[in-house]
Design a protein that fits this description.
The protein is of the alpha/beta class. The two termini are about 25 Å apart. Strands 1, 2, 3, 4, 5, 6, 17 and 18 form an 8-stranded mixed β-sheet that branches. It is about 30% helix and about 15% strand. The longest helix has 21 residues. The chain binds flavin-adenine dinucleotide (FAD).
Length: about 575
């Protein structure tokens, strides 16, 4: 029987978009007081594998395990498939990856049947796509929706995992595979009086299913990360007044989205093998490949022309396809940062506002780069105000307004674009217990320790898709998800073929991999900057210290290492 420490759990059900749509129910950090015991008496169901999460990872893992002939069951908090694209329904939500580089690549039929309508598809289209995938491969019959896994414990004697859901249902399986998502736990700021606001409040990562009308409304957006930027540029179109509360500006680059016409559609479909090959070869599995030159190897004029070209190209090219040293050499980074600062000053009319929008504490690309469509021009509109909350902090929220140290801003709607408890957040919210009852929270108290970002010493048969220290965390994610899932599937097949029942990494393999992750990261400029890349979230207790969450050696090197480990009979793992 699973032991539960409910005091530490945060349930996404308590963030129901419907409830938020109804008004002032900002319940992101609410801790449930009681277990709902409704299903506690139900018999424990048994499977070969349990998968937590029905996003892109969980759906694909289910498909692959079924092909192996395993019984697999997915447990998903939401009431539909799609993960990120199920939850993030806020206006403006869309890809930063080129649509045709993001979709699954495993099925030729699927690739040919699905038409992406835009180079960077909006959320509704991606959610439609993932539902199309679920239908095509008949995935739903093995998914239990509205089922938040709250606890998972390894039973040593039986060599199996037992999970428990929020309503007390239990299930057992030899393998437990987490597909819980790198950005699936929305976080709220801890402002005094937040629950007293009488207007409507929304978190972008828990947006209601019904549209929200901003016409004639006084709207606040708190947060200017990738999501904040997307939502701000949409809300500014119709709100009577939009007040943006910015703690920290980011360097934003043009998305340059456009529709895909019939001829381009035909070309995309004919060239999928080349598109995916290009992704495979690039550091982050995007179609953009880093330029092999260093920034200082060209003249200032040539460099400027190159930056202009990247700025005029769609997508992440300016981040991923730039000189190879802009994310490692401060001088190289300064050249592109200065270029980006110049662009902001050109696009924003009021130079006082432009200065507020220019990051002062980090260089370009060392935090997640938001992609934008006329974002900077929003601040030229008369209906938009920018409030720098480092100058005038938010002091509290009252029933009708946000109060800063300087002013009171009367509001009808507050949008929290305050991000996620990234990468480890979804793990922290499940009471995971391995050998001897040791909790994963305890094991990771000083930061994650993993082998290949896929397994953890002391937690046999637990496999973590898109986990910390896995290349998928810094990737055009579905490309890395496919690698993760296929590698895990091969491991399970290998074990079955050799009648092996238990896999767990050695302490030494875990130590070496964790140190390797740290060593790689130490070369990167992003380790000198506070961001979710470094495990920082000022709204989450205990997440104020920098830790290395990402594998920064690049997807090709990661894939090579995983393949090598497998080829050597799963070196570094103890298989029994
Ligand atoms: C707004 C936004 C835009 C993005 N755009 C891009 C992009 O352009 N390109 C890119 O590569 N990546 C992007 N990402 C990252 C995105 O998260 C990944 O691309 C991808 O969707 C991850 O898929 P996943 O299946 O691993 O996780 P998710 O899609 O997050 O799915 C995880 C699922 O697990 C469920 N879950 C979590 N915990 C539990 C639990 N305890 N019990 C039951 N269920 C649980 C969640 O409800 C969720 O449905 C974006 C993220 C966001 C938030």
């Amino acid at each position: 029987m699973v032991t539960r420490t409910l005091a530490t759990l945060v349930h996404l059900e308590d963030l129901s978009g419907d409830r938020q749509a109804g008004g002032n129910s900002v319940t992101v950090n609410v801790v449930p007081e009681q277990v709902k015991p409704a299903a506690a008496h139900e018999p424990v169901k048994r499977y070969d594998a349990i998968i937590i999460g029905a996003g892109i990872s969980g759906m694909y893992q289910l498909y692959r395990l079924r092909q192996l002939g395993l019984t697999a069951r997915v447990f998903e908090t939401g009431d539909g498939v799609g993960g990120t694209w199920y939850w993030n329904r806020y206006p403006g939500a869309r890809f930063d990856s080129e649509s045709y580089s993001y979709g699954y690549s495993f099925s030729q039929d699927l690739l040919q049947e699905w038409d992406w309508s835009e180079h960077f598809a909006a959320q509704p289209e991606t959610l439609r796509y993932l539902n199309f995938v679920a239908d095509k491969f008949d995935l739903r019959r093995d998914i239990e929706f509205s089922s938040c896994v709250t606890a998972a414990a390894y039973d040593e004697a039986a060599n199996c995992w037992e999970i428990e859901t929020g309503d007390g249902r239990r299930a057992r399986a030899q393998f437990l595979i987490t597909a819980v998502g790198p950005l699936s736990i929305p976080t709220m700021p801890n402002y005094e009086g937040i629950e007293t606001f009488r207007g409507k409040s929304f978190h972008t990562g828990k947006w209601p299913h019904e549209p929200v009308n901003f016409t004639g409304q006084r709207v606040a957006v708190i947060g200017t990360g990738a999501t904040g930027v997307q939502v701000i540029q949409e809300v500014a179109k119709t709100a009577a007044h939009l007040t943006v509360f910015q703690r920290r500006p980011n360097y934003c680059a043009p998305l340059l989205n456009r529709p895909i016409d019939a001829e381009t559609q035909r070309k995309i479909k004919a060239s999928y093998p080349e598109i995916f090959e290009r992704c495979r070869e690039s550091h982050g599995c995007f179609i953009h490949k880093a330029d092999p030159r260093k920034a200082a190897e060209v003249s200032p004029e040539e460099r400027e022309a190159f930056y202009e070209k990247l700025y005029a190209d769609p997508g992440f090219g300016i981040w991923m396809g730039n000189f190879r040293d802009i994310l490692t050499d401060p001088l190289a980074n300064e050249t592109i940062s200065e270029f980006m600062r110049k662009k902001i000053r050109e696009r924003v009319k009021d130079q006082g506002i432009a200065e507020k929008l220019i990051p002062k504490d980090h260089g370009f690309g060392t935090r997640r780069v938001p992609l934008e469509t006329r974002y900077y021009e929003v601040y030229n509109q008369p209906n938009v105000t920018l409030v720098d909350i480092r100058e005038t902090p938010i002091q509290r929220i009252v029933p009708t307004a946000i109060m800063t140290s300087a002013t009171e801003y009367e509001l009808d709607i507050i949008i929290y674009a305050t991000g996620f408890d990234a990468i480890t957040g979804a793990f922290d919210r499940i009471d995971i217990r391995g050998v001897g009852g040791r909790t994963l929270n305890d094991k990771w108290a000083d930061g994650p320790r993993t082998y290949l970002g896929i397994q953890i010493e002391g937690f046999p048969n637990l496999l973590t898709l898109v986990g910390p220290h896995n290349a998928a965390t810094f990737c055009n994610i579905p490309r890395c998800i496919e690698q993760n899932v296929e590698w895990v599937t091969d491991l399970i097949r290998y074990m079955r073929d050799k009648s092996l029942k238990r896999v767990v990494p050695t302490q030494e393999a875990e130590r070496v991999w964790t140190e390797h992750v740290y060593e790689l990261a130490s070369r990167m400029l992003f380790t000198k900057v506070d961001s979710w890349f470094m495990g920082i979230n000022t709204n989450v207790p205990g997440k104020q210290k920098r830790t290395f969450l990402l594998y920064s050696g690049g997807a090709p090197a990661y894939r090579e290492k995983c393949d090598e480990v497998a080829a050597r009979g799963y070196e570094g793992f103890t298989l029994t």
